[in-house]
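Sequence dictates fold. Below is an illustrative record:

_____
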Amino acid sequence: MSEVSTNAQYTGGLGDKWLERELKHVNLGDIRLNKRLIKTSYCIEGKASGSINQGCSRWKEAKGAYRLFSNKKLEDKEIYSSHYKETKERIKGNQLVFSVQDTSYLDFDSHIKTKRLGSISKAYTKHKMGLLLHSALAKTEYL
């Protein structure tokens, strides 16, 4: 696998190979897909607020990312399961773990062709359409 630059300042001391550890339990049924997932994840991490083309330094990487996302073998439950296992391992042995939570409203009302969105607001005569994002950060007293 070729080297991909990472943004280690956000990994909380996990080092520059944190995605390999975080995704080590993922099994997409093909080692090439597993490697592509890690490589693509590093691309996205490097430019999380940008598009895939902005995150990937070359078209070859972007094309690989698009192929990965369109592959039927890519299942979110595999990724979540690996993340869950690694998070559980990181917090094991701590007597106190804080779960810092936040809810964000993602407003897609202007995206008229987007399907299967729910109402996020009843404050207007027309319901605003979008998604609710509820995130949580597990934090120990030592990290």
